[in-house]
Amino acid sequence: MTQALLTARELAAVLKYTEGSVYQLASTRPHSLPPSMKLGRSLRWHPDVVDTWLREKAGILTPTFPISQPQPVNRKRGRPTKGESAAKAALKMAGGAK
């Protein structure tokens, strides 16, 4: 027999959030909640997916579905340091980067 899908109120009880917080997170930061499905106008969560998601967050399981996280960009602002300028000039003199 299949399990009943969780409503936002039931998911909020599992995660110890308020129902409003679940809806807010679902609209602004959906990656911070388990994957959901939309049935009509309401969001639903499968209990097994929620359980797997919680285990992955706790570090018990390895992820089974791709979790996209932004990659950090190491862009320094401002002028380059003297060392960076010297390294770039040396590379340019050696016929490397332009």
What's the layout of helices and strands?
Elements: H1 8-15, H2 19-28, E1 37-39, E2 42-44, H3 47-58, H4 82-93
Antiparallel strand pairs: 1-2
Helix pairs in contact: 1-2
3D structure, described in words:
The structure is a single chain. The protein is 43% helix and 6% strand. The chain has a domain at 8-58. It is mainly alpha-helical and 98 residues long. A hairpin with a 2-residue loop joins strand 1 (37-39) and strand 2. The protein has a two-stranded antiparallel ribbon. The termini are far apart. It has 4 helices and 2 strands.
How much of the sequence is in beta strands? Answer: 5-15%
Structural class: mainly alpha
Radius of gyration over all CA atoms, rounded: 23 Å
Distance between the termini: 66 Å
Average pLDDT: 84
Note the total helix count: 4
Task: Give structural attributes.
single chain, 43% helix, 98 residues, two-stranded antiparallel sheet, mainly alpha, 2 strands
Tell me briefly what this model is.
By secondary structure, the chain is mainly alpha-helical. The protein has helices at 8-15, 19-28, 47-58, 82-93, and strands at residues 37-39, 42-44.
